[in-house]
Amino acid sequence: MHFLYFCPANKMLFPMINHCYLYLQLFASYSTKEFRNKQELVKQGEEQRLDKQPLKQNNETSIGSPARVQKLIAAQSDPLLAKEIFDLASRQPNFRHSYAAWHTLILKLGRSGHFSLMQSLLSSLKSQNYTISPSLFSQIIQIYGDAGQPDEVLKVFYTILKFDIKPLPKHLNRILEILVTQHNFLHPALDLVKSTYRYGVSPNTTSYNILMRAFCLNDDLSIAYSLFNEMFKRDVVPDIESYRILIQGFCRKSQVNKAVDLLEDMLNKGFVPDTLSYSTLLNSLCRKKKLKEAYKLLCRMKIKGCKPDIIHYNTIIMGFCREGRALDACKVLDDMRSNGCLPNLVSYRTLVTGLCSQGLYGDAKTHLGEMLLQGFSPHFSVVHLLVKGFCNIGKFDDACAVLEEILRHGEVPHIDTWMEMLPWISEAGDPESMGSTLNEILKMEIKPNTKIVDAGVTLGEYLIKKIAPRSYKS
Length: 474
Known about the structure:
It contains 25 helices and no strands. By secondary structure, it is mostly helical. The protein has a domain at 1-131.
């Protein structure tokens, strides 16, 4: 059998219209490599020609039904070939494409980057009497967005209007989401929202949230706040996210008082702030050293329907410790437990470090013990800070007790921690006693990778040098 070669559709000549169905099927078969169906298609075409059946009426010709043509178009991996099939079918008498065929081909052309062909086909569709699916425009918006063409994305809004269709909120919001990713299109996005009312399109809460977030991140807080106020004028009800966006924006600009006012307004209107809103505000209050206000807000959370979590408590603990109020942080830790929120590794590390920085080594040692009992591993810097602190105030026994506790729980003190103790051995009134204390510590079972091995050699050599001269003199 000889293979058929085809030129572009506008130059095709067919001797008999009855052969169109056969040729089109063969064309599709070769392009999609479905050669296994070729013989059956030939047989069907020959039977149709021999029977000399008249052309089918009612929107179906010898080229096949609209549904069949749509399947052929959808099956093509080459969008230009799909367009040829579409054009070939369009020229047949009494043939009218299904809307699905238009929809499929428009998207196929757009996704392959043939934007001019897509626009041309879209313009042709406008003159046809079809009911257009809103999803078509949603997908066109996404196509231009993926292609990085925000200017074309913006034009789609007005294209929808040309079809005598009112854009849906989902169309507007998807356009806005794409536009605000480009700094140069922030104000065009704002202008679009302001103009939508002219066309009977009402932006919803999500529309305003998209714009407010974008302008807050762009440090245009005044525009974001004006949009928030405009929502009330337009009878658009803000949601929790609306408030959170502005609270975060004010906190980012260190305008914590305005953020607190927004929270109060939120509570007065019956909203329950989410945990992220509280976290943002608590952190901002602590950084502004407004610890009293932060602690009050923490206590109000549960009353207002939002149970504080570990992040909220740790934020306050860190704030108190940062300002040298570690004992107040200890009270917050007690509040955590009484409210059913267990301290975590960050809670203990922050608290022990804060206590050590204030010279409260006894309290630090107590909380370090709690930390170990809970199965948390202290960072070696925390242990070093505590051991060094005890050594500095002459409490060598307490320093040894800390090391003993650490080793008992299988932790590895850093070599610098051991070396910190060496100068104090020579100051001890009974170096032999100190040596025995260290030896007892060194006898404890520790992990194979313990860095104490190197320190133990150094300590041993140091003790020999200190003790041997005294033994020689005696």
